[in-house]
Design brief:
By secondary structure, the chain is mainly α. It folds into three domains: 3-99, no CATH class; 111-208, DNA polymerase, domain 1 (Orthogonal Bundle); 226-400, Intergrase catalytic core (hpI Integrase, Chain A). Helix content is 57%, strand content 3%. The protein is built from 17 helices and three strands. It has helices at residues 9-21, 26-45, 55-73, 80-99, 111-131, 135-151, 162-172, 178-198, 226-237, 242-257, 261-265, 296-309, 331-345, 356-369, 374-381, 386-390, 397-402, and strands at 272-273, 278-282, 289-293. It has a three-stranded antiparallel β-sheet with strand order 1-2-3, with no helix packed on it. A hairpin with a 6-residue loop joins strand 2 (278-282) and strand 3. The longest helix is centred in the first third of the chain and has 21 residues, at 111-131. The protein is globular.
């Protein structure tokens, strides 16, 4: 019986339709179709239904293909990750079509693991309902709470001691920078207070947790210099490809308004009012919205991208991937790697890595140098308090030096 006559044929047909809909290139479609066919043949040989395939089946298939590669070439692939992706791109798509969700959420292996997750889910809900924290903050605190519970092993919560907490922090400390360790301790305090309020512990152990010393503004990275910002923006403007048009529009938003990566990724077509020349920004960290003037250079960059660079898609987000599937950008890795790439293309070599946030700091410094008030800078950056804006004073050292006062004669130093 040929492959086309097997029960897997409908899934192959659906995959082909999905690849056409998402406008994959011909070569990309061929690679993903070939990978999917090989994986389905593997499942058929081992009598595994595609609807019930697991992550372990994908790993077993990849291990099988890797052993064949070694026998044929006498070595490992030069880039194992790229080699794996040549298969998983098509495999994950076919499994997504067959199962509706991929990768599947890992189920708890034990009752204890299930109880831990339920406790952390309840904690996350409490952080939302009682504290009203941002989703990202809730996610981070839930992750750290689960890591703490896992470090306790089989220890009953009502019996945990300060030593158990100290051991957890001691094990994590070597992997973390001091500022991150400070956040870890703060998050543990929050979770321990919750456990006590819930009656899971007999006393409030959060009071015994001592954090690391943290100095004001120590975590602020150095800003890009104005000359770097100008050079990378000009270099990107000369790139007339679809990717160049998109990246230039993003860099204009970064350099002009100092937006966060998430605020650019979530920017929607409806947020741009061309008649009123305004831009609505949803600040990802504070949850508030700002209405900013759409300056002409920024508006022109976005308009050129929309007219000549943005692929046809039903997505309402402004910025879209340049390769199929044409989906909105992911805030973190997409913009970070784009900025790194554009800095490198512009011939800018920096000692430390710089992502989208470096443009935010650079914009703050340029406004401080222009004698713009702290309140106005905070409004542009979407800060709730002047304390958040004040951290950028650390970056404007030249301005602070200019206002230093001379010590009168006769006064002891």
């Amino acid at each position: 019986m040929s492959f086309e006559q097997t029960v897997y044929t409908p899934w192959i047909d659906q995959l082909a339709q999905r690849l056409r809909t998402d406008e994959y290139s011909s070569s990309a479609k061929q690679k993903r179709m070939a990978a999917a066919r090989q994986f389905l043949l593997y499942l058929q040989k081992h009598q595994i239904g595609v609807e019930s395939a697991k992550l372990s089946d994908v790993q077993a298939f990849l291990q099988h293909k890797l052993s064949i590669y070694r026998k044929r070439h006498g070595r490992q692939p030069k880039d194992v990750n790229a080699w794996r992706w040549s298969y998983t791109g098509g495999i994950h798509l076919i499994l997504l079509l067959a199962q509706g969700k991929w990768p599947p959420a890992l189920k708890p292996r034990t009752l204890q693991e299930q109880a831990r997750r339920q406790l952390c889910d309840a904690y996350a809900q409490w952080l939302l309902d009682a504290r009203g924290l941002a989703p990202k903050t809730i996610h981070n605190r839930r992750v750290r709470a689960l890591q703490f519970l896992e470090s306790l092993g089989n220890e009953i919560l009502s019996r945990i001691t300060v030593s158990d907490i100290d051991n957890h922090v001691r094990l994590r400390a070597p992997q973390l920078q001091r500022t991150t360790l400070h956040h870890l301790v703060d998050d543990l305090r929050s979770f321990l207070r919750y456990l006590y309020a819930r009656g899971e512990t007999t006393r409030d152990l959060s009071q015994a947790l001592v954090g690391t010393r943290r100095y004001a503004f120590e975590g602020i990275p150095p800003a890009l210099r104005a000359v770097h910002v100008n050079r990378v923006v000009k270099a990107t403007r000369r790139d007339r490809t679809t990717k160049g048009l998109r990246d230039y529009a993003i860099l204009m938003l970064l350099s002009t308004y100092g937006l966060r990566a998430g605020e650019i990724a979530s920017l929607r077509l409806d947020d741009i009012d061309w008649h009123k020349d305004s831009l609505r920004i949803r600040h990802s960290k504070t949850g508030v919205e700002s209405l900013l003037p759409l300056l002409a250079p920024v508006g022109e960059a976005i308009l050129k991208y929309l007219q000549r660079g943005r692929p046809t898609t039903k997505a309402r987000e402004v910025f879209i991937r340049t390769r199929a599937p044409f989906k909105p950008l992911r805030a973190g890795s997409s913009l970070y790697h784009m900025v790194e790439h554009r800095l490198k293309k512009a011939g800018i070599r920096l000692e430390r890595k710089h992502g989208p946030h470096a443009f935010r700091h650079a914009r703050a410094v340029s406004l401080l140098h222009a004698s713009v008030s702290m309140k106005s800078i905070g409004d542009v950056l979407g800060h709730r308090s002047l304390d958040s804006t004040a951290i950028y004073l650390k970056l404007a050292t030249s301005e602070l030096q200019a206002v230093g006062l001379e010590i009168p004669k006769g006064v002891s130093r």
